[in-house]
Automatic annotation (TrEMBL):
Pfam families tied to this protein: KilA-N
PROSITE patterns, alphabetized: KILA_N (PS51301)
Organism taxonomic ancestry: Bacteria, Pseudomonadati, Bacteroidota, Sphingobacteriia, Sphingobacteriales
The protein's name in its UniProt record: KilA-N domain-containing protein
Stretches assigned to the KilA-N domain: 1-110
Transmembrane segments: none
InterPro entries recorded: KilA/APSES_HTH (IPR018004), KilA_N (IPR017880)
Domain of life assignment: Bacteria
Amino acid sequence: MRTTAQAKDGDFFISDWLRNRNTVKYLGIWESIYNPLFNYGEFAVIKSQAGLNSYKISVKDWVEKTNAIGLKATAGRYGGTYAHPDIAFEFGMWISPHFKIYLIKEFQRLKDEENDRLKLNWGLQRTLAKVNYHIHTDAIKENLIPSEITKQQANSVYASEADILNVALFGMTAKQWRDTNPDKKGNIRDYTIIEQLVVLSNMESINALLIQQDLPQNERLIQLNKVAVTQMKSLVENKAVKKLK
């Protein structure tokens, strides 16, 4: 960006701007951020003299002494002083209060536009989150809610009451789970979620009552499976249970 030095109330030369102590500080901070080859020794000397009546420096001297990259002066027909936009804006605000006000208002306008876009994006994200929640809920239902047991499962004889509960809720015995998951340690119940643990606890109580009623094993399995299906459908959408996670 080419830096001009013309203002309504008179001509301000860039060398006058460079004499300003605040200008030197600003340029030094900018160069320290963007210029790894900046000469801090020479900069310290210039900074100590900035603001004095006897102090004067040109862009060419500034660049040669400090190895600055933010300003550049060229000679010739198309020559002039060129500056990085950050520095050109600083110069513009120094020579013109009108420009400073314009720059501030433009910055505010851009921030308002950005905020409007963010609000729109946030609204879109909330909408997508709601859609994804329903997709996630459907996935939970599909994968966690037990299937109705088959006739073969109902007619099988199970070695323990624990396996009856496992088949009713998980669709398989502990041994079948171990055979299916040889790389996992522990047992099937070590990998349950809160909803399944709640249902399992309820099923244990219900199974105890069914045993007291002398129901055959296969009938108890069918009853317990119905309980598992019904309760899991209810619990996967229960907000109180979600708070426990």
